[in-house]
Amino acid sequence: MDIEALAAELRREAKALGFAACSITGVDLGEAEARLQQWLAANRHGEMDYMARHGLKRARPAELVPGTLRVISLRMDYWPGGEPPASILEQPALAYISRYALGRDYHKVLRARLQTLVERIRARVPAATRVFVDSAPVLEVELAQRGGLGWRGKHGLLIDRGAGSYFFLGEIFIDLPLPMDTLSSTGHCGSCTACFAACPTDAIIAPYQVDARRCISYLTIEHPGAIPEPLRALIGNRIYGCDDCQLCCPWNRFASLSIEADFAVRHGLDRATLAELFPWNEETFRERMAGSAIYRIGHERWLRNIAVALGNAPGSTEVLAALRARKHDASELVRVHVAWALHRHAERGG
Ligand code: SF4
Ligand code: SF4
Predict the structure, then answer these.
(1) What is the mean pLDDT of the chain?
(2) Which among 23, 59, 174, 325 could bridge 181 via Cys, Cβ 3.0 to 4.6 Å?
(3) How many domains does the chain have?
(4) Would the pTM count as exceeding 0.70?
């Protein structure tokens, strides 16, 4: 099969598998390497040591996976619908969970589809491939941007003119010289600074530069220990991730509902109260969160995050009772955050 026909076939198959867009790019990431070095040198990756672990290989796909000639980037939209985010964020007794995590774990969904796509390519032509989904070694925004899937917004995420930014990216590294797509635009943020103003913790320190150590997504998902005290009150009711820099982005007016049933809201997580989630024991957490990306943070971090949000909620009888019931929790991490939350309520006369 000739290589042009194979690329056309690949795009057709990707669409049939539910991917909204697909691009093919080369392995030279040019100046992205210098930006990566600066970000790491400034320690903005916080405790995400795995970000530094692969060194410059992250900006050099052919070194990360020897033999790679092209990177195929694939986009899958996830907006799940459900309760309007603004309404949840305005009701501090409710739990806000990032919209991408309300359904099934996207890692599993995307990985399975990428594997199927790889099998279909291999059925036509022998190829060495490796699949990545939200994987630290890969500079996925850079690769997708170079292939024309959109531009990096000032909040650091990829934006598509017709679809906004509510999507996942996955990559296939491949050793075939497929025809490359070209960069379609250098960016359409213009003079907009909406995401800077919207970020609750001022984590966007300059255009295209997010300090992970201040970012609520990092703090509630990746960060292993205690959440720094000065940031706790700013987290509000966000117990898993944060969407504020995307919710305010004008390009997300063009985002549409995901066609994937797997990303639909599960267990009413789009409207749950903090007080109803906090009593979950480990077994309940494992049972309800099985198959969800939230499962990955584990029960202890889940409770840590909810304790912070309960400290930020109005001191109702339910909120105070939920906190007091975990005053002597077996986990020190949880106890520390519960103590902080109760102290906040005491200061406010709760
Ligand atoms: S995810 Fe939230 S905390 Fe992180 S940069 Fe965006 S708005 Fe700021
Ligand atoms: S909110 Fe404005 S500046 Fe931020 S990513 Fe969107 S368009 Fe760009």
Answers:
(1) 93
(2) 23
(3) 2
(4) yes
